[in-house]
Amino acid sequence: MPNSANSCPIIGIGGWAPDFGEERAAKAKKWLLSALKNGYRHIDPAYSYGTEKAVGEAIIESGIPREDIFVFSKLPSHHGRVLELIQESLDNLGFKWLDMYLMHWPFSAPYELEGLKLNILKHDIAVVAYNPSGTDIVRKDPVIVELAAKYNATPTQIILAWHLSRNVVVIPKGTNEERQKENHNLPTLEEEDLKKINALDRGQRICNKGDENGLVYGMSIEDLGW
Ligand SMILES: NC(=O)c1ccc[n+]([C@@H]2O[C@H](COP(=O)([O-])OP(=O)(O)OC[C@H]3O[C@@H](n4cnc5c(N)ncnc54)[C@H](OP(=O)(O)O)[C@@H]3O)[C@@H](O)[C@H]2O)c1
Q1: Where's the active site on this chain (predicted)?
Q2: Domain 1-110 listed as CATH 1.25.40.20
């Protein structure tokens, strides 16, 4: 499959949908259409989110040319069926090409955080933050709340702005149109405030943090290389 010439906008819209049952695709299509209307040109679907069809339909209904939107998908854990699953994703989306194809769960590829950072500065690799708002655990942190007041912004805007300061791509999911606009219009944080946010690191995981035995999908954090 040829690479497209599209580059990846640094703010995207999340494509994962909680289990909405039969309404899942219709709800996803609604928030994706409003995101496209509000300037988002990067969408983050995956085969396993079950929203690829909604992504394709939203793009077509938006009237925005496919070439103007960065769309990718992700290989689920069936690593021996790559071509077949790319084709299924393309069929679901209704498109002939993807701008990028990721391995959703590279279980067998452990990395060292420091090594990752170093290799990124060397190979110019972009990193994407999923679950970028950090949920209410981060949103309600007093430092974040204080900075939100200082910048006349919402806590989520402060958190997303911090990601952008590190050149990390963000894909906040948002069904609410006003919040979609907020998340696409971020303040620039001062150096001293970025330092305050850096200092919040507690070495804790929020997403995929493991069950009561510390296992994620049956694997330990160490086995996953995280
Ligand atoms: N590769 C992976 O394994 C993986 C794992 C997790 C996520 N992801 C991707 O990352 C995307 C984002 O992750 P996520 O949905 O878990 O987390 P998130 O984007 O950090 O948070 C989404 C939640 O925050 C709310 N929200 C959005 N903007 C807000 C604002 N300005 N103020 C207050 N609340 C706000 C949304 O509410 P409303 O929807 O009601 O607006 C939604 O409940 C997913 O959709 C998916 O595409 C990938």
Answers
A1: 49
A2: no
Q: At 20, is the pLDDT very low, low, confident or very high (cuts 50, 70, 90)?
A: low
State pLDDT tens for residues 91-129: 999 999 999 999 887 664 333 333 344 345 856 778 889
The domain spans of the chain are 1-110
pLDDT over 70 (residue 84): yes
The tens digit of pLDDT for each residue in 168-194 reads 999 999 999 999 999 999 999 999 999
Is the beta carbon of 173 within 6 A of some atom in ligand 1? yes
> How many angstroms from the chain centroid is the CA of residue 25?
18
Catalytic residue list contains 49 = yes
Please report the pLDDT score of residue 185 as a whole number.
96
CA of 55 to the centre of ligand 1 (A): 16
